[in-house]
Structure formats: structure tokens, C-alpha cells
Write a structure and sequence with these properties.
The structure is a single chain. Helices cover about 85% and strands about 0% of the residues. The protein has about 50 residues and is mainly α. It starts with a helix and ends with a helix.
Length: about 50
């Protein structure tokens, strides 16, 4: 998990848990990634059902 967080967000879990600013930044990035994924799914579904 540590390595994945470091690769994905550029911050290790220890730093993530200690620093609120880093935690907020990572969570904002995760939310944006989730929304991008949801948009991609909708676009794929729309293209399939045309």
C-alpha cells in the first residue's frame, strides 16, 4: 500500500497520516480520479447504446 500511494500521489502513507495538507491534497486527487472514471464509463456506455 505504501508503494502504491507513493507512486499514485507522490506521498508515503506515514506523511499522509501525519500532515493534514497532504491528506487533503491526496483525497482531492482521488475524488477527481473517481469523477474522471465515472465520466469515462458514461461515455463508453453512451457509445455502446447508440
Amino acid at each position: 500500500m505504501e508503494k502504491a500511494m507513493q507512486q499514485s500521489h507522490g506521498v508515503g502513507y506515514e506523511e499522509y497520516s501525519r500532515q493534514l495538507n497532504e491528506r487533503l491534497k491526496v483525497e482531492k486527487e482521488r475524488e477527481m480520479d473517481y469523477k474522471k472514471g465515472q465520466i469515462a464509463i458514461l461515455e463508453i456506455e453512451q457509445s455502446v447504446y447508440r
